[in-house]
Amino acid sequence: MTGVTISGRQVELARKLTLDLPSTSAPESEDSSVKLGDGAVKFLELDAEKMGDYFTAAPNEATFDCVWISEAMSHLPNKELFFRNAALLLKPGGKLVIADWFKAEDLSEQQMDDDIHPIEGKPAVASFKAY
Asked: Which of 23, 24, 87, 102 is the most buried (most CB within 10 A)?
């Protein structure tokens, strides 16, 4: 399994949490896989829009059984490029899994305050009635 994130801090946390598991052994280098049970895991700091170039440059890692993107699609400026890269990297019969949120266009101010503003890191807009 190869985990990809644009956040160096997330890579650091993932590596630490993995190494804390009882069935792991230390990797030879920061870029190498960690043995985990019968498999191996590696975490990379990488822009998802550059994954096609990165993985096709490494012949042993050019195909995957699954490409899974979780709560990042909405942040990608070039979504079409992500889909091209995913298609390039998937083995025949491979799966693309997308888990993300997308905002409906007709949300009320209350729905925006309750559900969207906290995700976007924006303060809620106070509603005041004039008396």
From this structure: 24
Token look-up 């550059």 returns 50
Each residue's pLDDT expressed in tens, for the chain with a length of 131 residues: 889 998 999 999 988 888 888 877 776 666 678 888 888 888 999 988 888 888 887 665 558 899 999 888 878 889 999 999 999 899 889 999 999 877 788 989 898 888 888 877 776 665 544 44
Strand stretches in 7-130, DSSP E: 34-36, 39-45, 64-70, 90-99
- Degrees, nearest 5: CA angle 118-120-124: 45
Q: Is 68 helix (H, G, I), strand (E, B) or coil?
A: strand
If asked whether residues 97 and 110 sit together in one domain, one would say: no
Q: Whole-angstrom Cα distance, residue 96 to residue 68?
A: 6
Do residues 73 and 32 share a domain?
Answer: yes
- Region label for 91, one of left (φ > 0), alpha (ψ between -120 and 50) or beta (otherwise): beta
Do residue 81 and residue 40 come from a single domain? yes
